[in-house]
Amino acid sequence: MGTLYLVRHGQASFGADDYDVLSELGHRQCRQLGIWFRERGITFEAAFHGSLKRQRASCEAIAEGHGAVPPAALRPQLDEYDSLALLKATHPEPLPAADTPESYRQYFQLLRTALGRWMAGEIAPAGMPSYADWRAGIVGVLDEVQRVQGGNVLLVASGGPICTAVGHLLRTPHEVTIDLNLRIRNSALTEVAITPKRLMLVAFNHLPHLDHPERRGWVTST
Q1: What Pfam families would the database entry show (predicted)?
Q2: Residue 157: helix, strand or coil by DSSP?
Q3: Model confidence over 92-150: pLDDT tens digits?
Q4: Which phi and psi angles does 84 have, rounded to 5°?
Q5: Cβ 142 vs Cβ 135: under 8 Å
Q6: Which element (helix H / strand E) includes 214?
Q7: DSSP secondary structure letters along 104-152
Q8: What is the three-class DSSP state of 95?
């Protein structure tokens, strides 16, 4: 029996022109996770990441800290949903920059509403698949992981795909899946036991690699 280690990407560049860029702190978060894996003798039979820059860079930083992660296979099914397309489908008017506590709260309140409507099939954001099709792609990767025999698997993705995977395993309603999604932290580790018959959740959204006084300021969620 192996373990699937699902990792959310490190801190990206929320509020910048290109969010899909791993910040310097995001790189340190993921490199430290790689060190944590190495120090505990955790090795990997296979690795996967999505096609987004922040996902690829996070996987590379983990590999840098670990020193022996196998070449990662690209799985675009692990890409995050398009939050801007979701927001536009629900709130066509331009939103103010999320640069104050109030505007930040407004952004995530609207995102929560948009996610719920997309999951319910009430909106079709431009350039996005239906939620059912998007979810099916993620479940397909989980099925692929289950066929990896006798080893651990590293999977680096974003909050949406990871929480959708957890929701699938626990059969949670959409509202709970959204709650999980909006609470997952950067470089957070979610562990799933791999057995021949099924995948079973062991731990969710924890940061053992940052559990040190010198790294208290490294905990982020953007």
Answers
A1: His_Phos_1
A2: strand
A3: 887 766 667 777 788 889 999 999 999 999 999 999 999 999 999 999 999 999 888 67
A4: -65, -40
A5: no
A6: none
A7: HHHHHHHHHHHHHHHHTTS---TT---HHHHHHHHHHHHHHHHTS-SS-
A8: coil
- Tabulate helix, strand, coil % of the chain (nearest 5): 45, 15, 40
The span from the CA of 95 to the CA of 110, in Å, is 10
Q: Whole-angstrom Cα distance, residue 158 to residue 137?
A: 14
Q: Which residues of 152-188 are buried (b: 16+ CB within 10 A; e: fewer)?
A: bbbbbbbbbbbbbbbbbbeebebeebbebbbebbbbb
Taking the C-alpha atoms of residue 118 and residue 186, their distance in angstroms, rounded to an integer, is: 24
Domain(s) of CATH 3.40.50.1240: residues in the chain = 2-80+128-218
Residue 91: both structure tokens together: 């709130």
Q: Domain spanning 2-80+128-218: which CATH class is it, in words?
A: alpha beta
Query: Residue 191 forms beta bridges with which residues?
Result: 5, 203
In sequence order, what are the residues at sequence separation of 6 or more whose Cβ sits closer than 8 angstroms to the Cβ of residue 164?
A: 134, 135, 138, 177, 181
Tokens for 11, please give them: 């801190």
Does the global pTM surpass 0.90? yes
Edge-to-edge, what's the strand order for the sheet holding 46-49? 73-74, 46-49, 153-157, 2-8, 189-194, 199-206
